[in-house]
């Protein structure tokens, strides 16, 4: 269905061993990713949403190439000299406190090839200007900056090696709303200017709706719904997506907080549930849910699902 | 900026990162640290300028003035061959302090590198190194030191080498632990994403960040090393005569403790005061640099 | 991780330690210049006598063979015969170990009984005069040369005041109680001999104080650090918000949790005390392993030195095992996760 | 204390082994010597002084063949081991065979190839391969103690393990308890053949710290305190209830000059060193005057001393002159000592200072005693300190041991001295049983070795011991330092 | 009208520090009436927590200084209360829950132990009766297997579960005032909703007043009757939730709402607020928001006070002053 994809993930699984008995054999495995298929479109922003622990960051690491999936394949459709960069959630630990800002920003460059200092500084100054930092800050150290400024530094660092794709792992979660808006604007500008591809990980649906072209909803290491963000978020098909959207408090809500949800606990990813992963929390769960579900395309999106949901009339609150 | 021409050495970089004003502010708040620091400075000063402050040649014997009581001629009295104890204590401090610094530097450097290496490489290498360190730590250290010192032959430098060897595992543990922590930080993950080499990560991320806990440990170690060195000298495995050394002086002096208490009392006090001062300073620096670090 | 797993892991490590320790000490022992055979032979012995002894002791064999022979013995519980006393090393250690253990445990008791309250007070009243006081005590403790402190207390309490004996485990004029545990204080109580108990107690006071003073500092510092750590935890805030009094917050909430990390330190301290006793025992003529090993090193009595090292290392590993198990017993977090 | 029947001796360290065939340590002998009897014993003069001549102990009479190679001893009757068994010829034969068979240090005192045979129930014959002048005296050694043959049944290797911690002798006392590292208890042997000892119990307390030993002595907890530093003795002498006893002794302190190592291989360097030491300064300063400078190797009080032999004295000018003759010496000279004797360190320091006046560069090395002895044996040293006390009263102890080139190293010739002529003299002197002839031989020898400055003969020191004044009957014998005649001692109230 | 459950007047709190005193709270007036749910909203560092913690006397002794202001709880001035009385108050009439459910429970004690401790401390219930009470509280929090949960350790439970337990504990002794400091920030949205629902229902049911702290405007809007908007240690606007958020009168409140991506058009840039919050070591003399404010003018150099801008609706801004004047 697509023409230009920068990366393709097919059937990615990721397991982490945990515990060790006295012979060093693991007690078992954490199943962080359980069969992810995704196509990432050039120049677009893909939003990834889901509850804590559903494997978003693990997915990011697979995309970055710092973790080899236990199963499945990542295909990269860009030259070897271009790469994927990342911006992390926690601006505190993502910058080395012992490097001056100009070193931090140019690290992706000098870590790989030796360059004269003057050249690096020039590059740093250039990038700093791009992300809205004044050049005189280049000799300071990261801890002297506010959260928002640190996130700008992190973005500048991601840009320095001129990547095609930037993975943004909850880049604004630790920031205040007023600062979040600044960063989101910056990201948009940079994308427009450089034709970057973003993978934007978040649990804030409204940010995803604002920023992303496409959205993938993750649950327990699987994508349960994937499609154009306006379509998916306006008319979710999968019961989990619906639950997520229902749970988000909005300023305009009139109905108060409503009824209490019964089961909010995520199933364990050590012993994966049989059948549909969502069945224990699903209002619509029925007979067909005892088998694993596959992704099925609908008009606007792909939905992992769920005979029941596909056939049940949509019931989305505002 | 002339930055492009200046080569930056890591120590200077670390020091340049210290906010001296802040450090002073913290030290001022803690009278104990301040006191410890002051005594350390005084001790270092006295010891470095021992020739200036000494009233006698520390090795000049005078059999006719053996075991003289403290007085104007000999501030702290004399020893069993009539040497001036005051002057010997001044000179003796040189040995103790030098051993302290030597051990901490040698063990610190080797231990830090080995630990960082093990932590960064991980896998088998790490396991082998750490098990080895565990084994060394399980061996009673004093016996190991005594045996090593005996094997190398008694001399202060050999004692220092023995102590340094035995203390390496402590630094390996600290630096490895710290390396593992730092390796999990997202700036290292970031560096991995742009395919930085292990060497780059070691040089730019690990080492600069483990230096401060290592330095904290090192300051704390100074006190205990001085103590340990004097203990070795006490059992005759340290400094050799006629070189003055505090532990050795206490050892000889104990034969005279009933009638000539000053012989072992003054060098004993010298050890106590110096070690206490270094420990207070180290404690204070730890509190400032690394308030979370647990006492070991 | 289960109890069983921890035990299994530690026992595996024990084998490793046993091997490592014997290799290390054997190597170093043999680096020490000196010939044990000469030592036995005495000053005026002829070379034939020395050679004769060397053969008797197997010292004429190549080192690796000697090592293997030694290891073979150790596996069968035979640590060889002491060169100095001519008796089986294990036999000697069996005599001296309880004395050292009794001293170490008493010192540990002293260090904890005082160190914990001091550490708690210091943390609760951080930066107050009492905190400074405790820190000075603690730092002085770890900075005092035990060998020197020992001399001073002997001089004071024995020499000047005459209140306490200068050394030994018990007044030699008393009948030794029947040996049951090897701990004089316990054995004398078991025998119902209060005089002996009193004498043993009097004898252990000074060495235990001297030895414990160092660790008093270690314990107080550890408890202080752990308490400070716990006191700033969120659950303390919850407890306060729930209306618990300061006293309860400190003693029923913070202290138990602060003791968990401190167990490790206490375990290490006991290990330390066991071999840290070396110098103290010398000063106080305490008939324990410490004095035994010092004499053995001086006399190039390698079997004895190695026996000591192996036993103490073993004790060290076992203490660690105990610490791990206690840890698991008191900290529910470890029992089930991971 | 308060217990008149108990005598307490304070020692610095625990005995190592109590087997007379094994121990070579004076420290052990304090305990072992009174546990056993020997064929002969040192005599005591009328006025209670220890003599260097021997009388029979287990032996009632003895004869030697004219050539001095066959010795026949008749045993006195009535002596019995602590288990009641009679001390007979078989026991003597057994003891000596055991000693030689074990072949440990003590066996060295007896001439090689010595045969011991019970030639009757109560008669033993010793056959030597060649005459050995001091033979009779060796029989008074600790190693010559007669052991109950019953030990054979106590385990392998002649019951050594058992005997290392138990007693099986016929001495006045027997071992009844040993708390390791704390104390040993001796009680009278009920079957002892001699006069019943007065003291009902003897306790040897192990107190490592000299200061503590002294304090215990002052407090009256201890009757006899061994090895107190010189400085403490002076202070003690003035205390109530304590007596510091002085005995002339044959124990000497001297420096080994390694004749094989440069620059000490040059006789003039050795002479220079001998003249650069301030003997009187050391005696006055370090010994508080309690000693005299030696006059050659043989001490005062031992027959055979040659007063005409050279005695060096502190004379820097002549020392410098000698050094000039040698052409100077630039090598660093190592000086070994250990903490075995607290006097050695001050001596070492003083010597270093004296020699530095000559421009000699001395490096002090304090070693564990065992390590130091090893170095004596390998000859890797320049100078070293040593003490020497004789096992029996014969100049042999100070000459054959010290200068015989067959005894290089630890065995006795610790300065690695070699002189064919001297070797010849020694050989002659040992096989002769004519005292006058031997005196002449040793006299000549002394002139040679003092001239060649093989050792630095420092001083001969009195034996001084601090004793509570209620201890009576102690007899000091210069052959038996640190050994007490418990059987003859008593406590007054 | 009855006495306010909580009343704070002119509170000023500062933390001495290396580069000077941190003026965290700079004159806060606030009240909570019986049965009312009051929201405290503001960006990170605006002193929401410090204000609440000072009120309950939970700030670590020695680290802070209250330089001005009075606090009264249930009509009593806390300054006059002894430590004993405060302890009786806390956990009894006043309860507090915190942001991090991970760490807010003692990790080495079972849930049961921790709950019983509170119940027994503040009520006459003992033993089984106390246990029944604990089970009842948990059941109210929709925890079905309550008996089993009592025997569990905190680490064995999910974050949502722990927070529900903490709420249950807070209600153990029917408090008149509950202070909830960002109780759901660390939770997932689905869990957040459940916790908020339970908390809301329980408060209404028992008639307890709630001081609810959050930086999430949407949550505040749904949860609270009345809100205070804080900025740099000051209250800049207060009033009924719907009014303040529907018709913000302070430029800061307005800008904050505009900056939300919720209603933004994906094609257009978000309305961001330039700059960052002021440094509290030297808080601005005048209006704290001046430096970032679109409407700033000369008058803003002096400090505006809260003035009525509608019924029960107040704002501290010279602009509104002028308008209303
Ligand atoms: N290195 C690892 N070892 C073991 N388990 C891991 C590891 N990394 C992640 N996991 C597990 O994998 C699952 C997914 O983790 P991940 O960090 O990808 O979640 P997430 O969606 O990013 O969550 P959050 O929103 O909290 O950041 C979690 O259960 C986590 O515990
Ligand atoms: N113990 C303390 N020592 C020094 N400064 C403190 C302390 N506690 C809080 N502060 C300072 O007081 C100010 C207000 O902090 P507070 O925690 O109340 O903010 P908040 O509004 O609750 O923010 P958040 O939304 O991040 O919880 C901050 O600037 C903070 O740095
Ligand atoms: Mg994540
Ligand atoms: Mg807060
Ligand atoms: Ni799977």
From TrEMBL, chain A:
Key words of the record: ATP-binding, Nucleotide-binding, Transport
Gene Ontology MF: a single term: ATP binding
Tagged with keyword Nuclease: no
Subcellular location field: Cell inner membrane
InterPro entries tied to this protein: AAA+_ATPase, ABC_transp_ATP-bind, ABC_transporter-like_ATP-bd, ABC_transporter-like_CS, Oligopep_ABC_C, P-loop_NTPase
Membrane-topology annotation of the record: Peripheral membrane protein
Record carries keyword Transport: yes
Domain of life: Bacteria
Main location: membrane
Chain ranges of the ABC transporter domain: 7-245
Pfam families the record matches: ABC_tran (PF00005), oligo_HPY (PF08352)
CDD domains: ABC_NikE_OppD_transporters
Family under the similarity heading: Belongs to the ABC transporter superfamily.
Protein name according to UniProt: Peptide/nickel transport system ATP-binding protein
Species name: Shimia sagamensis
TrEMBL record, chain B:
CDD domains, per database record: TM_PBP2 (cd06261)
Keyword Mitochondrion: no
Transmembrane segments: 32-54, 97-122, 142-166, 222-241, 261-282
Keywords: Cell membrane, Membrane, Peptide transport, Protein transport, Transmembrane, Transmembrane helix, Transport
Subcellular location(s) per record: Cell membrane
Annotated membrane topology: Multi-pass membrane protein
Top-rank lineage group of the source organism: Bacteria
Pfam families: BPD_transp_1, OppC_N
Record domain ABC transmembrane type-1: where: 97-282
Family: Belongs to the binding-protein-dependent transport system permease family.
UniProt name for this protein: Peptide/nickel transport system permease protein
Top-level taxonomy: Bacteria, Pseudomonadati, Pseudomonadota, Alphaproteobacteria, Rhodobacterales
UniProtKB/TrEMBL annotation, chain C:
Lineage: superkingdom: Bacteria
Subcellular location: Cell membrane
Domain named ABC transmembrane type-1: residues: 97-327
Main location: membrane
Keyword Transport: yes
Statement: the UniProt record of this protein carries the keyword Transmembrane helix: yes
Pfam families: BPD_transp_1, BPD_transp_1_N
Segments crossing the lipid bilayer: 12-32, 103-124, 136-158, 200-220, 265-286, 306-330
Sorted UniProt keywords: Cell membrane, Membrane, Transmembrane, Transmembrane helix, Transport
Topological category with respect to the lipid bilayer: Multi-pass membrane protein
Record family assignment: Belongs to the binding-protein-dependent transport system permease family.
PANTHER family reported in the protein's UniProt record: D,D-DIPEPTIDE TRANSPORT SYSTEM PERMEASE PROTEIN DDPB-RELATED, DIPEPTIDE TRANSPORT SYSTEM PERMEASE PROTEIN DPPB-RELATED
Protein's UniProt name: Peptide/nickel transport system permease protein
Organism: Shimia sagamensis
UniProtKB/TrEMBL annotation, chain E:
One Pfam family recorded for the sequence: ABC_tran
Location within or outside the cell: Cell inner membrane
Location (main, coarse): membrane
Stored InterPro entries: AAA+_ATPase, ABC_Ni/Peptide_Import, ABC_transporter-like_ATP-bd, ABC_transporter-like_CS, Oligopep_ABC_C, P-loop_NTPase
Keywords from the named record: ATP-binding, Cell membrane, Membrane, Nucleotide-binding, Transport
One GO MF term: ATP binding
Sequence similarity: Belongs to the ABC transporter superfamily.
Name listed for the protein in its UniProt record: Peptide/nickel transport system ATP-binding protein
The species this protein was found in: Shimia sagamensis
